[in-house]
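hiii, so i know i said id send this last week but things got crazy w the move. better late than never?? heres the sequnce for the chain we talked about at the cafe, plus the structure i predicted for it. fair warning i was half asleep when i ran it
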Amino acid sequence: MLGTNGNPVIFSGNSHLQLVEDICEYLDQSVGEVEVFKFTNDNTFVRILENVRQKDVFILQSDVEPVNDNIMELLIMIDAAKRASAGRITAVIPYYSYARTDKKDQPRVPITGRLIADLLETAGADRVIMVDLHAGQVQGFFHVPVDELTAMPGLVNYFLERDLDNPMVFAADIGISKKARYFADAISAPLSIVEKRRLGNEDRVESMNIIGEVERDQPVIVFDDEISTGGTMISAVEAITDRGVTEVYVVATHGVLPGEASKRITDIPYIKELVITDTVPLSKDKLNSKIKVISIAPLLGEAIRRIHEGRSVGELFTRYR
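okay and structure toks below
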């Protein structure tokens, strides 16, 4: 029978090995032993190398490039754990990429966020952990319990320690304004918003208007949940610097940053720092002196511990709800 005796078993897919190692270091335990690779015919193979019968199993996989391969790998790992008689299986997905596809906003398009939720449940996931969903309603796509964690405490603490002089927080668009409000309140800063218009299905954004006032010598923090190509963020920064601002900090939970995105952002002279978390692994060639990466390993580790022990996860974030 599943209980709280002993440690949870934590397995890693191939998407973010370092994060799993950091989580297990926080929990003072070893990473679970599993073999995950592809055959020459491109089929994924998984073999769990330790006994998981009736144990509390957590499988971490971030939906990062190659996204579809990593999702398939996660599904197969869940199925392997289920067939090995695991007591409970929790999918830990720091970055749920298809959260962007949360509704039918055009004719004849899928709701892929819901499809992936169905696949995870069919594979055998009993619970799901995610971090700062792009669309919170994705939680409703699941019939199993979902814990949406937030990286807000780590981001807030970083800027409190940074102790900027009279900062102004800007939400990168209206959709993120609620979370941006929590962030602004936590660092005792006023909030403004950049109104944007997205052009079709392409990653091109035309920022239209700034809602709020900013002083020329005021440091500005531009807040978003996710940075992909950087189009939204760069447009927001340009709209703000048109007002004479010369000190800008960019902050987001998920730094996807494909291709040259990190360079495009940090090459802007007015941007002093790009602050992200490690929900998405960044290769060394994408890092530079302007990029600060905050680890979410303690956050995920503490959530895993609380779930395993049957304690509240929500208590970690009462201030930000």
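btw Residues 152-294 form a domain with the Rossmann fold fold (CATH 3.40.50.2020). thought thatd interest u
miss u guys!!
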